[in-house]
Amino acid sequence: LAVVAAAGASASAVAKIPDADDGSFRQEPGAGAVAAVRGRTVAVGTLAFVTGGKNEGAVPPEVAEVASASNPGRTPVFVAFDGIVAGVLEMEDEVRADAASAVARLQRRGLRTVLLSGDRQETAESVGMSLGIAREDIYGDVRPEGKAQLVEKLQKGGATVAMVGDGINDAAALAQADVGVAMAGGVGAASEVASIVLLGDSPSQVVDSIELSKATFAKIKQNLAWAFAYNAVGIPIAAGALLPFTGLALTPSVAGGLMGFSSIGVMANSLLLQLTGKKLSKMPESTKGEDDEGGDENV
């Protein structure tokens, strides 16, 4: 984090706002926040937000020089008093250690990974490409409503979209997606609209949830196949279909016991899902998903 303050003269030359209510606060998702402090309006956020869209002449030379030299992987956050920029903070998000491996696991499954970010395009590309995401699938400078629109665009193109997010900026996109995944520690708005709420904040858990979901659906299909086959054979026998040929007839108690055995088989097969969960939790990130088969799924 680097902080560079402009000359104080530019800020002191701005007239104060005498009728401002100290403590008043307003936040605009994806842009910044503004508050009244000691009769002056203090704004923090993007350059367009803190200057009200009047970028020309609102940035002192010292601040403009630092902002132009900003590292592509960092995001400049401007501070303005009464519409005139007084400083800039350069921020950099630390990429989680397992983020790259999580993206690789998704891609090995045949899933398309897309990055939607409110940060500037250069920052989004720097982070996204370091994770292995294609440049054409990286979108920067995206406002909250823009994320939902991009999700809708992908859906209209025939894709089934899973959106992962943790903030209020992601709530609209989470609601629009076919499957919304909220990370632990996120705001309530994201958790309320998400289809899945993870108990942790690790990107690898997103892939784990997909693999567990697929394993669950596989068990459902196996249980249905078992139940249909078992009943297709068992019901005629219980009704006496073998009696004319073999003299074999089931008593009501035996027939009831065999029906219970069918349910036990379904439950036992379903309990095997616990082994899948334990296997995922024990696997190193570098080996997870190596045996996954690619498909035609879309994210």
Automatic annotation (TrEMBL):
GO terms for biological process: copper ion homeostasis. GO terms for cellular component: membrane. The keyword Membrane applies. The chain crosses the membrane at residues 224-243, 249-273. GO terms for molecular function: ATP binding; ATP hydrolysis activity; copper ion binding; P-type divalent copper transporter activity. InterPro entries: ATPase_P-typ_cyto_dom_N, HAD-like_sf, HAD_sf, P_typ_ATPase. Its main location: membrane. SUPFAM superfamilies: HAD-like (SSF56784), Metal cation-transporting ATPase, ATP-binding domain N (SSF81660). It is found in: Membrane. Keywords: Membrane, Translocase, Transmembrane, Transmembrane helix. It comes from the Eukaryota. PANTHER family: ATP7, ISOFORM B (PTHR43520), COPPER-TRANSPORTING ATPASE PAA1, CHLOROPLASTIC (PTHR43520:SF22). This is P-type ATPase superfamily. The lineage of its organism: Eukaryota, Viridiplantae, Chlorophyta, Mamiellophyceae, Mamiellales.
